[in-house]
Amino acid sequence: MKSAYELAMEKASKLGSASTEERKAAQEKELAPIGLNLAERYLRGSYPLRDVGITLERQVTGRDIVVAAIKSRLVDALAAGDYHRPLEGLVFLAQDKARVEAAAKRVEALCREHQETKRQRLEEAAEAIEQAKRRELEALGISGSAIRIAAGATEEWQRLVEEIDASFRQALEPLRADLIG
Question: How far apart are the C-alpha atoms of 117 and 114, rounded to whole Å?
């Protein structure tokens, strides 16, 4: 007859320990939010890169997970339009600085091109939307110089913005791996 201790030990050995993948997933689940938090604070301007570096130096275990989360968030921020801070952060965190700096220059050019294209297309769309809405109002008997059309509040405008931004995100995707480097 076995003691309670022996039975418990037998049962525990049958269950086994967590696999390497399970441990890694648990560690990632625990540490990734730290990286995302650091990235958000940096992007808002409330946490300078110097402090991000100090925090990372203090991170004994899972530093690579925290850094990967920061880099991922910084690349995602590029798609939102502001590219100076995210690129600066990516270069700061890079191990292969030359490769990331080269990719950052390509991304800067892509961002400037995107912003100019977006500006031009939205200006053209604003005129067309305003004219169409003015005609609709005139057909209803509403006219006058006091009427201001908010083109940016229309569905057409929102669709165009999403189309332009989706095109930019698609063009940015091939550079993602070089930026995360």
Answer: 5
